[in-house]
Amino acid sequence: MRVVEAFRAAFGASPQTVWRAPGRVNLIGEHTDYNDGFVLPFAVPWGVTAALTPRTDGVIRLLSLQSADGEPVVMEAREDSRGWTRYVVGVLAMLGDRVAGADIAIDGDVPQGAGLSSSAALEVAVASALNDVHGLGMTPMELALLSQKAENDFVGMPCGIMDQAASALCEEGHALFLDCRSLGSRSIPLDLAAHGLSMLIIDTQVHHEHAGGEYAKRRAECESAARKLGVPALRDVTDLAGALARLQGDERKRTEHVVTENHRVEALVGLLRAGAVTEIGALLNASHLSLRDLYEVSSPELDVAVEAALKGGARGARMTGGGFGGSAIALVPVERLENVQESVSAAYAERGYHAPRFLPATPAQGAHRIA
Ligand code: GLA
Hints:
With 371 residues, the chain is an alpha+beta fold. Helix content is 40%, strand content 23%. A hairpin with a 4-residue loop joins strand 10 (316-320) and strand 11. Helix 2 packs across helix 4, helix 3 packs across helix 5 (162-169) and helix 4 (140-155) runs antiparallel to helix 5. The longest helix has 25 residues, at 249-273. The chain is globular and about 60 Å long. The relative contact order is 0.17. The model has no long low-confidence stretch (mean pLDDT 96). The structure holds alpha-D-galactopyranose. Residues 30-31, 33-34, 159-160, 162-163, 321-322 line the site of alpha-D-galactopyranose.
């Protein structure tokens, strides 16, 4: 394994443990996690592998096979972390006294900038490896929560629990139905091939700069709407018409999205349980329109990808993840895969957009030890 070889070359001994954690796509349930709602992500075949040996002197030495110079970054203190190293150091910081330093080599193959949660994969891989070598006995959900806390408190991104939970808990061939309030979860079989279907990721290769600020703004709008409605979170809205009558402007639109999106997650899970996989397309489409028009987190590239995929024969399509660029997913009958790709590529070329990248997504295994 090349990450083990790189570890040996850099640090002069074999790593004590090696863990792999995947990225994710979200089938449905967007911007619902921080509203105590429901999500349905699945792990993608790409992820991050972390080879690790603990240290006792507080020093952190980090090597990434993806960094240009191939030299380890050596940090004497947590404050020394910059850029991508913050995701790793944040996890160590959240473990406090339980962990001193570590030698870590990282190898990742999550397509960068595609919105497939490479940062969650990195956090969960490192958290899982530390849990293992220190015998901390943390559950996958506890590791997900720790990783989220690292991202919230150390990196400063106010994300919900979805990405880290997906990376830690997903099972191969399944989507993860997660209640983001109780943190109860269930694996739902997702055998697309058995229905002659494929899930195509359309990576727009565009990531808009303002995404972080807009994310925090949406979150604040939802919290403010919940306060006005006198509920702990938008998850608790039962009378949608009554709630909308009491809100205005953006808060009204955000609320309508979140409440209807939660119902779409439950409906989609119902269809999957009934084996009506082909029928989920309509819910994917409705989710996209809601994210575009009510939550306002789509982008022209994502909208064109969705429209062109449908034109090419997809049963349904939507943006996935936080939005403002990143990827869309399309549910495509296998015999239409080529048509859909041609349709999207042609629509992009016509508008002078950067060519999109197509990736087939099959539900993969969550975090696991590989050596
Ligand atoms: C990002 C966040 C998640 C979630 C999605 C939107 O991926 O990290 O917690 O809020 O956006 O559904």
